[in-house]
């Protein structure tokens, strides 16, 4: 489907995906809910609040690395916020280095962080090569 025909909410207003692509730097609050036609989102360098729910075709998020669920119930994810990769799990929000240090004594959590860090490193290497 053409980006002019795909709609989402940006900064409280209904906008097309085309608009978001052209104005990604102006998007601070993005909500993408129940949109089966959406397959990718652009980098959102200034976003402070992004909701992505029930978008079955959405697979290409260059700023998100979906991690695993810890046995205590926390979902670990790598998210690029304002140009910096962060590891977020529950109420924790760390740089990659700080996440490794914080969870260094929790082998399960550290293993998840290491997998996310490896994917981040791969993406950064691919980005440089492109």
Can you describe what's shown?
The chain folds into 2 domains: 3-53, no CATH class; 64-129, no CATH class. The protein starts with 6 loop residues before the first strand and ends with a helix. A hairpin with a 5-residue loop joins β5 and β6 (75-81). Helices cover 28% and strands 32% of the residues. It is built from 3 helices and 8 strands; from the N terminus they run ββαββββββαα. The longest helix is centred in the C-terminal third of the chain and has 23 residues, at 107-129. A 4-stranded mixed β-sheet has the order 2-1-3-4. The protein has a 4-stranded antiparallel β-sheet with strand order 5-6-7-8. It is α+β, with helices and mostly antiparallel strands.
The class by helix and strand makeup works out as: alpha+beta
Our count of helices gives 3
Could you spell the SSE succession in H and E letters?
EEHEEEEEEHH
The helical percent reads 25-40%
Q: Judging from the principal axes of the Cα atoms, what is the shape?
A: elongated
Low-confidence spans: pLDDT under 50, at least 5 residues?
none
- The largest sheet has its strands arranged as 2-1-3-4
Major sheet characteristics: 4 strands, mixed
Radius of gyration: 16 Å
Oligomeric description of these chains: single chain
Please report the distance between the alpha carbons of the first and last residues: 27 Å
Number of strands: 8
How many domains in all? Answer: 2
Strand content: 25-35%
Which whole number gives the mean pLDDT?
Answer: 89
């Amino acid at each position: 489907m053409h980006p002019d025909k795909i709609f989402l909410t940006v900064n409280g207003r209904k906008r097309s995906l085309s608009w978001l692509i052209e104005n990604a730097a102006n998007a601070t609050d993005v909500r993408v809910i129940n949109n089966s036609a959406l397959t990718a989102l652009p980098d959102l360098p200034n976003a402070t609040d992004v909701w992505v729910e029930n978008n079955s075709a959405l697979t290409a998020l260059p700023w998100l690395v979906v991690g695993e669920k810890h046995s205590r119930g926390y979902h670990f994810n790598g998210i690029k916020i304002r140009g910096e990769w962060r590891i977020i799990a529950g109420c924790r929000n760390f740089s990659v280095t700080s996440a490794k240090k914080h969870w260094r004594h929790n082998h399960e959590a550290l293993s998840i962080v290491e997998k996310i860090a490896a994917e981040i490193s791969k993406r950064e290497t691919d980005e440089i090569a492109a």
